[in-house]
């Protein structure tokens, strides 16, 4: 039966979200797929969506936090396009009973060096897009925080991918260690990783799963965050250490804005800066506006915070969906 686009007013049925662990770059990778499409290759071409929306998270890249945002976006775009969130390599471990889907043969596939580092995470996303998305399906990328930096690098490294537009939400694409939060985070991340290893293994490793699960449920309740996938990896020492390792590399490597890639792809980019963001302050917004006056570079008027996924997923989905509605003719 063909998938039809539905108006939300017509249907109140539950939005399906499918969790999958795929092997990508040699590492088990959690992908949360919002919508009825789970395998775009085996989908009959008549039913295959013309566009796939891919969310590249910030750090830590715990995909379950993005579920409310993904669902809202799926709804607001009339349920026409799948919305997938790919977790960073090493930020999620598959439960023991979970089957891991092997990757299709990719002629360019090689084991990715330093996959948990920043460059490795870019290669990891490229490997996923090349092996899990049919070439004829157009892509809309949504990068959040360091996901914005990764999205820009995807455009730079893989011009052959059919990316029609990229949203960079609260984009940490320059001067990270100089930002108000970066000044605090940089020294912490350089030694904190080792502290995490030690405390993580001493405290979290012996902690029973039931207690971890209870703590996470209580935390989600406090944050008023509804997601059907418990982000158990928040209390996994291995995942936390990888997030800290990636954070340390961000501080050292995300220094100068890549104006070359921005200039080349400007018509396909929307930047969205926050007014209260301590990772990319308003000055960064003013500077990029000055350098690219013709670009679609916006300053949030709704006081949405950098970590919008915790409470402002609906509002942020509205911003992206409004743009999409105005530009559906391109698809």
TrEMBL record:
Species, as recorded: Castor canadensis
Name of the protein: Lipid droplet-associated hydrolase isoform X1
Keyword annotations: Hydrolase
């Amino acid at each position: 039966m063909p998938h039809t686009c539905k108006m939300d007013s017509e249907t109140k049925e539950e939005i399906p979200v499918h969790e999958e662990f795929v092997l990508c770059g040699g590492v088990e990778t959690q992908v949360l797929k919002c919508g009825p499409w789970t395998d775009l290759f085996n989908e009959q071409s008549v039913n295959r969506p013309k566009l796939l929306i891919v969310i590249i998270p910030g750090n830590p890249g715990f995909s379950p936090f993005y579920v409310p945002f993904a669902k809202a976006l799926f709804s607001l775009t009339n349920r026409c396009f799948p919305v997938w969130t790919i977790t960073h390599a090493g930020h999620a471990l598959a439960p023991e009973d979970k089957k891991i889907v092997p990757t299709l043969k990719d002629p360019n596939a090689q084991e990715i060096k330093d996959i948990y580092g920043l460059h490795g995470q870019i290669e990891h996303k490229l490997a996923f897009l090349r092996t899990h998305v049919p070439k004829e399906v157009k892509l809309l990328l949504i990068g959040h925080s360091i996901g914005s930096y990764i999205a820009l690098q995807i455009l730079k490294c893989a011009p052959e991918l059919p990316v029609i537009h990229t949203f960079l939400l609260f984009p940490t694409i320059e001067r990270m260690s100089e930002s108000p939060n970066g000044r605090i985070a940089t020294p912490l991340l350089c030694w904190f990783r080792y502290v995490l290893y030690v405390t993580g293994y001493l405290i979290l490793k012996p902690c029973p799963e039931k207690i971890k699960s209870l703590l996470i449920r209580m935390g989600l309740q406090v944050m008023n965050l509804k997601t059907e996938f418990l982000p158990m990896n928040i209390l996994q020492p291995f995942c936390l250490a990888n997030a800290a390792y990636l954070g340390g590399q961000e501080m050292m490597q995300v220094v100068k804005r890549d104006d070359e890639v921005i200039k080349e792809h400007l018509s396909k980019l929307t930047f969205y800066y926050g007014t209260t963001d301590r990772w990319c302050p308003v000055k960064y917004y003013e500077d990029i506006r000055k350098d690219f006056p013709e670009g679609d570079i916006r300053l949030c008027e709704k006081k949405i915070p950098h970590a919008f996924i915790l409470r402002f997923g609906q509002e942020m989905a509205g911003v992206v969906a409004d743009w999409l509605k105005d530009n559906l003719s391109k698809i």
